[in-house]
Design a protein that fits this description.
By secondary structure, this protein is α/β, with parallel strands linked by helices. The protein has two domains: 249 residues, Aldehyde Dehydrogenase, Chain A, domain 1 (3-Layer(aba) Sandwich), CATH 3.40.605.10; 195 residues, Aldehyde Dehydrogenase, Chain A, domain 2 (3-Layer(aba) Sandwich). The chain is 38% helix and 21% strand. It has a seven-stranded mixed beta sheet, sandwiched between helices. α3 runs antiparallel to α5 and α10 packs across α11.
Length: 519
């Protein structure tokens, strides 16, 4: 592959890439149905209970069986992590950087296989999956560069006397539990874990129960890069395992990406012990785009469509609310519907597919409920149907991309759905549009389309969200990339105030110590 795949690629020649992927899919499908372990210490661990991982595009296909971790496995993982942590922290930071960079290179070498597995496991289309893998490698490199730039986060401070040596030193917390989501199973797990590891912490990763295979592949990358035994471990399970890990007495910190409900629970837990523990949570979004009267409609329609329906809307940054100036509303809506009609829905293994399945049956149920509410209280402008009876889609979790209008303040305008589901509403003034965009518990991403620089700057000044874009055809509210767009949630979308992909992320995984030496 002669160029990098990011979420902003639109028109590059992909023919050679797709031909190579065709062969990789044949190889990966030959490995379906196997049993895979959890990894405790340096050992592959299996037991009597298994997590079955099925293809969301075809529920008949068993991708693999993954060993569920027991309570004894959890205790053993923390014991290994604590024993390994002291030595890992004492290693020169340059050595940790070297190993993480080596892991990044291994991800790049294996990106086709990793992407093929992700397509089967998440339902992402080919380019979304390749972007996820590429982002994981870039996160490793970007965070390693932060350690390089800050020289291990040791800074000299001022002196009160000539014989005084003072400095600020950032040191690790200890053992971090990393709870990763299904939607970016490589990039988000890699980003959270690598930042903790670079800071001298050890990590116990619980991948999503929907994407255990990708989790195992990330473990293999870090193992093959040469991380010492016990520094990075992986355990499989669902909510009960997540609770056992995050509430464990030997957990020194937690980092999580997922729902606001779970994230708030974790924050409360982190403050309920003998002393507070670090807890970094990214908790989703209900992201708006504002299309002003001067907007380039072609860019606005493409950007909104890609952000709303890429990965079947299962991104915390996905566009879910489009506020369109009344002079453009009807034309924007007509163009958006026409463009959405052209999207290929189907098996994401196929090159032409843009929209694959949602992740599971619960998502289909949530979609059906939202569509019913829109029909009852507003109007379904496009879509609104599950696709279980459509030819070729009968065995997967497929739903139609959907555009609706609902009364202001309706639940569908305020609550995160994590589905290919968006509302479109007209506005008269920019005051009204910004007020409506901000009238939400979430504050993750937002976008504006306008040819008026003053309108763009006002949007940037007044929108209550951590990630803002203007006139972005490749994605109105989506597509953040390491070192390019920091990804930080405000309000109910995050807790630390310093986001992933940004320049302050790694330092959060370390605590400050002031050192004074008298000569």
């Amino acid at each position: 592959m002669s160029f990098r795949i990011t979420y902003s690629v639109l028109n590059a020649d992909m023919s050679a890439l797709h031909k190579e992927l065709d062969g990789v899919f044949v190889k990966v499908k030959g490995a379906l149905g196997k049993e895979h372990p959890s990894y405790i210490g340096a050992k592959a661990v299996t037991g009597s209970a298994w997590l079955d991982d099925f293809n969301p595009a075809d529920r008949r296909v068993l991708l693999g069986r993954f060993a569920l971790a027991s309570s004894k496995d959890v205790d053993a993982a923390f014991d290994h992590a604590h024993r390994a942590q002291k030595d890992w922290a004492r290693r020169p930071w340059q050595e940790r950087v070297r190993l993480i960079n080596k892991a990044a290179d291994l991800i790049s070498e294996r990106r086709q296989e990793l992407a093929a597995i992700m397509v089967l496991e998440t339902g992402k289309n080919r380019l979304e999956a390749l972007g996820d893998v590429e982002e994981a490698a870039d996160l490793f490199r970007y965070y390693a560069q932060q350690m390089e730039n800050e020289k291990g986060f040791v800074k000299p401070l001022a002196k009160l006397s000539p014989n005084e040596d003072t400095r600020s030193v950032l040191k690790p917390w200890g053992v971090f539990v990393v709870v990763a989501p299904f939607n970016f199973p490589m990039a988000l797990a890699a980003g959270m874990a690598s930042a903790a590891l670079l800071g001298g912490n050890t990590v116990i990763l619980k991948p999503s129960e929907e994407t255990p295979w990708t989790g195992n592949k990330l473990y293999e990358v870090l193992r093959d890069a040469g991380l010492p035994d016990g520094v990075f471990q992986l355990v499989h399970g669902g909510r009960e395992l997540g609770a056992a890990l995050t509430t464990h007495a030997k957990a020194d910190g937690v980092v999580f990406t997922g729902s606001k409900h779970v994230g708030m629970q974790l924050l409360r837990q982190a403050a309920s012990g003998v002393y507070p523990k670090p807890c970094f949570v990214e908790m989703g979004g209900k992201n708006p785009a504002i299309i002003c009267a001067s907007a380039d409609l072609d860019k606005a329609v493409t950007g909104c469509m890609r952000s709303a329906f890429g990965l079947s809307g299962q991104k915390c940054s996905a566009l879910s609310r489009a506020y369109v100036h009344e002079s453009l509303h009807d034309e924007f809506l007509n163009r958006l519907i026409l463009k959405t009609q052209t999207l290929k829905i189907g098996d994401p293994v196929l090159q032409e597919t843009f929209i694959g399945p949602v992740i599971n049956a619960k998502s289909v149920e949530r979609y059906a409920q939202a569509a019913a509410e829109a029909k009852r209280d507003g109007k379904v402008l496009f879509g609104g149907a599950t696709l279980e009876k459509s030819p070729g889609l009968e065995h997967g979790h497929f739903v139609a991309p959907t555009i609706v209008s609902v009364p202001r303040g309706h639940r569908l305008e305020r609550e995160e759905l994590f589905l290919p589901f968006m509302i479109v509403a007209p506005f008269k003034t920019l005051d009204e549009a910004i007020a409506r965009a901000n009238d939400c518990d979430y504050g993750l991403t937002g976008g504006v389309f306008s040819a008026d620089k003053a309108e763009v700057e006002r949007f940037m000044d007044e929108l209550e969200a951590g990630v803002l874009y203007s006139n972005r055809e490749t994605g109105a509210t989506t597509g953040a990339w390491p070192g390019v767009q920091a990804f930080c949630g405000w309000k109910g979308s995050g807790a630390s105030g310093k986001g992933g992909c940004g320049p302050y992320y790694v330092s959060q995984f370390m605590r400050e110590q002031s050192q004074t030496r008298m000569g």
